[in-house]
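Hi everyone,

Forwarding the result from last night's run.
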Amino acid sequence: MKNSSAKDLTTGSAMQLILSFMLPLIFGLLFQQFYSMVDTVVVGKLLGVDALAGVGSTGSINFLVLGLCNGICAGFAIPVARKFGQKDLDGLRRFVGNMIWLGSIIAAIVTLVTTLLCRDILIWMDTPESTFSYAYDYIWVIFLGIPATMLYNLLSGIIRSLGDSRTPLLFLVLSSLLNVLLDILFIVCFRMGVAGAGWATLLSQLISGILCLLFIRRAFPLLHLSADDLRLRWPYALHLLSMGLPMGMQYSITAIGSILLQAAVNGLGASAMAAVTAGSKVSMLCACPFDAMGTTAATFAGQNWGAGKLDRVHQGVKDCTILGVAYSALILLAMFFFGEDLCMLFLDSRDAAAVSVIGPLSRQFLLASLVFFVPLLFVNLLRFTIQGLGFSNLAVIAGVLEMLARGIVGTVLVPLLGFTAVCYASPAAWIMADIFLFPAYFYCLKKRTCIPADNPQESGI
């Protein structure tokens, strides 16, 4: 298996391997959030509060649709990591060949459905008339770019499953810088409004995907597919779907709760919408290490499950817990002093009235999330480890619990308590998910100890 880019996570210090794999992911996610924040900053400062609220109100539906696609891609990568851990390169290539078929079909279907139903979805979400056109112009372009998003996530998932988390980072850095330039070009020079921010994101994602494809062709000889590898094999396709669809559904189910919550926030007016938008952007930026940890946990668990080293999987969870708790304390301290200043980056400082109202609200929202970052740590760590061990169906239950918590807060508590209830919706969702994930993790670990990764009844191939 001669390949300078692939990395075996089944031997060596678990902590060192986790850190070396996770750090590039963190930087990559930070850059993803960076160019997402650039869209929001440019929109908020140049186009006003209504435009900012409109773009922000699409966050939950964006998460539902793109989360479905990203979750499917992440699930597809798990069998690749397992085959790599087993050193079964023929099986690995067949999985990759079938990923290409399934990814293309899913991207086409999701793009068609979402672009056709985009206006109806925003109406159902009770998007205010003052922000409706901004929301529609932005999210329609994002939906149109779903094939580009699928391309990048499929290919970067394959690269990461082989132990290389650095190369996707480089491509994200490049595309992030391009996104900044395109934002300025489309919004400031071409006066394309919020649609310009959408087009900037679409083109940046497409370029990232193309770069991943070119890199795979050059740096991964083990991924040079033959015509036989590209043949659609139903056992392989069904196994991929059994891993990918539950992960995609998990994101989408979680997002349904977010949509219900967003509909409640929309009823509180543009100031509350803008505060949640700004606070959410900073919160997501702060949560990047947990997202990176989740991806690391899935790849680490998948490779070590394939190698039959379940003790290393549990050691990886313990090491990630130490890292995550320490980070949670540090980021809470930092944002207590500087969180509101970061939230204010999204607003035009000349609008004193808006700043005076939205600033304290966005800080309240941000700090309420950060206080509960340890539960969020375990949501990502345990859920992705469970998925890496091949139990994607169980991970869906955690998504259902998150949906129920956000839905209850949005439909019952927000009308009673207003903005304060909005602030604690996500923490409630994380705690609900953890109540299930802890016993589920130990069940999965025990189950995998009894059933090896190459068991034909388990793998289905």
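Residues 14-459 form one domain.

Cheers,
N.
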